[in-house]
Amino acid sequence: MELKIFSILALGVALSSAGRIDLGLKRKVDMGLVAEAIIELPQIIGQIQSNKTLQALSGEAKVSALVITLKDLAFTTQSSIVAQAVAQDLEVKQFRAANIILVKGLTTSKLAALGKSEHDFIIREQHVASVDGGMATSYQNISTPQWGLAKMRVPEAWEITRGEGSVIGVIDTGVNLDHVALGVNSFAGAWLDPFYQTEKPTDKDGHGSHVTGTILGRENGIGVPPAAKWIACRGLDHHGIGSEASLTECAEFMLTAKPRPHIINNSWGGRSNSDWYQQQISAWRDAGMVPVFSIGNSGPGCESAKSPGDNFNVIAVGSTKEDDTVSHFSSRGPTANGLVKPDFAAPGSDIYSCGTGSDDYLFESGTSMAAPHMSGAIALYLSHNKNATFNMVYNAFADTAVCLPIGEEDESCGLPGGNTSCHNNAIGWGLIDVAAALKLRSG
Ligand SMILES: *[C@@H]1O[C@H](CO)[C@@H](O)[C@H](O)[C@H]1NC(C)=O
Ligand SMILES: *[C@@H]1O[C@H](CO)[C@@H](O)[C@H](O)[C@H]1NC(C)=O
Ligand SMILES: *[C@@H]1O[C@H](CO)[C@@H](O)[C@H](O)[C@H]1NC(C)=O
Ligand SMILES: *[C@@H]1O[C@H](CO)[C@@H](O)[C@H](O)[C@H]1NC(C)=O
Ligand SMILES: *[C@@H]1O[C@H](CO)[C@@H](O)[C@H](O)[C@H]1NC(C)=O
To answer: Where does the record locate the signal sequence feature (predicted)?
Structure first.
C-alpha cells in the first residue's frame, strides 16, 4: 500500500515538469465551443517577495523595480511556450502581474501541439467574475451628509481632512465622467478600457458610478473623502462580467498608472475559495497599495464569502443597515481555510449615490455599496497619515471599530475570540468609525 502511494506521488512529480491540458478545456475546444485559453506557468511572486535587493527599496524606486522584475521573470519563463504558440499562428497576450498568457485561435490540433511542449504549465479556461450587483431599493430618506457617512462619523473626520492627496483605483464597469459629482475635478486622468477601448471613462451599467459616488462623490454628501481623486479600469463589461484577462490587465494598469492609486476598490467576485487573483493582489500589496473587496451578496448563511474577498491579503467588507443590524444579503465567513471574514462592516443597505445621467441619484443595496465606504475611509486615513502601511491601516480601523450586537445565527458561524470578543464572521472587527481611526475625540 505504501509503495503504491509512493509511486503515484512520483508520477505526479514527473508529470508536473511537462505541459498539461485541462480536460474540460480540451472537450470544449474539440466541440468548437471555445477558442481561447489561459496558459498558467509557475508563480513568480515568491521570487519577488524573497528578493532582498528589491524588498530593501521603498516608494517609487521599489515599485519600478517590482514592475521590471515581474516582467523579466514572467517573460523569461514564458518565452519558449510563446514561441510555440506564435509558430502555431495563435494570437498571444502576455501578462506579468500574474504568470499567465492568453492564447486565442485554438483548434484541437493546435491545442495538442502546445500540450507537447516540455515545460511546466497548464492550459485551462479563463476564470470569470461578475459585479456584486447593487439592488435598487424603495428607501427615500435623503439627508446630507447621507446616513452612511454620519454612521461612520465621517463629517467629524472632515474637520482635519477631506481626502486631499489620496487616489483610489476603481476596477468596475467604468465610471460616469459626465456626472456632476464625479467630473473633471475628481478624475485624476488615468483610464483603461480592455473591453471597448473608449478614450474617456464611461459607464453604461451604472454599477461603477454608484460605487465611485460613495467613494468620493462631491455633491449631496454622498462621498466619504470628497477631495480625493479616482482613476479607473473597466475590468467588467457593460453586463457586469469580467474575465481573467481583463481583470489582470486592470491589475497591471493599477501598478503602472500615473498617478498610482493608494487604494484599489473592487466590487466584483466569483465563486468561493478560489485563489486565481492572489498573484495580482500580492503584486499590489508589494507596491504598497491597499486592496479593498466586497465580501459578496450570498448571505446570510455561514461560509458564503466570495473570492477574492475571502483571500487573506485583502480587506473584505460586509454590509450593515441604518438600524445597525447586519444586511441579510451580506456574505458571512468563515472561509474554507478557516479565516474570519469579512474584515470589517460598513453601511451597504439603502445607499444614495450617482446614476448614469449628468446629475441623477438612486438608492441601492449590496456589499458593493459597503466596500466603497471602506475605500473612502482609508483614503481619509491615508490623507492624514501619509505612507501608512497596510498593517497600520488595518490596525487603526480594527482597534476602533464599533462592536455591534449580532444574532444567534451569526454567532453560530464561529466566534474565534470567544463570546466576549467582538471579532466575528458577520461584521469582522465591527462597523468602521473613521473619526476614531483618525484619533479624534470619541463620539
Ligand atoms: C512619503 O513617501 C514619499 C516617497 O517615498 C516621501 O517623499 C515623503 O516624504 C513621505 N512622506 C511622509 C510624511 O513620510
Ligand atoms: C532582484 O531585484 C533586483 C532589483 O529590482 C533585480 O535587479 C534583480 O534582477 C532581482 N533578482 C532576481 C533573481 O529576480
Ligand atoms: C430619515 O433620516 C433622518 C436622518 O438620518 C433620521 O433622523 C430619520 O429617522 C429618518 N426617517 C426615516 C423615516 O427613516
Ligand atoms: C468598490 O468595491 C465594492 C466591493 O468590492 C464594489 O461592490 C464596487 O462596485 C466597487 N466600486 C467601484 C467603483 O469599483
Ligand atoms: C459564553 O461562553 C461561556 C463559556 O463557554 C458560557 O459559559 C456563557 O454562557 C456564554 N455566554 C453567552 C452569553 O452565550
So the answer is: 1-18
The answer to whether the beta carbons of residues 163 and 376 sit under 8 Å apart is yes
Of the bound ligands, which one is closest to the alpha carbon of residue 215?
Answer: 4
CB 296 within 8 A of CB 371: no
Q: Where are the beta strands (DSSP E) in 183-300?
A: 187-192, 229-234, 241-243, 263-266, 268-269, 290-294
Q: Which of 368, 383, 384, 410 is catalytic?
A: 368
Residues with CB under 6 A from ligand 4: 131-132, 170-172, 207-208, 211-212, 265-267, 293-294, 367-368, 371-372
> Rounded to the nearest whole angstrom, what is the distance from the C-alpha of residue 302 to the centroid of ligand 5?
21
Indicate if the alpha-carbon torsion angle 156, 160, 164, 169 is positive or negative: negative
pLDDT tens track, the chain, 443 positions? 333 333 333 333 334 457 899 999 999 999 999 999 999 999 999 999 999 999 999 999 999 999 999 999 999 999 999 999 999 999 999 999 999 999 999 999 999 999 988 889 999 999 999 887 778 888 888 899 999 999 999 999 999 999 999 999 999 899 999 999 998 789 999 999 999 999 999 999 898 899 999 999 999 999 999 999 999 999 999 999 999 999 999 999 999 999 999 988 677 777 777 888 999 999 999 999 999 999 999 999 999 999 999 999 999 999 999 999 999 999 999 999 999 999 999 999 999 999 999 999 999 999 999 999 999 999 999 999 998 999 999 999 999 999 999 999 999 999 988 887 889 999 999 999 999 999 986 54
Domains in the chain and their CATH numbers? Answer: 2-126 (no CATH), 130-437 (3.40.50.200)
Cell numbers 468561493: residue = 272
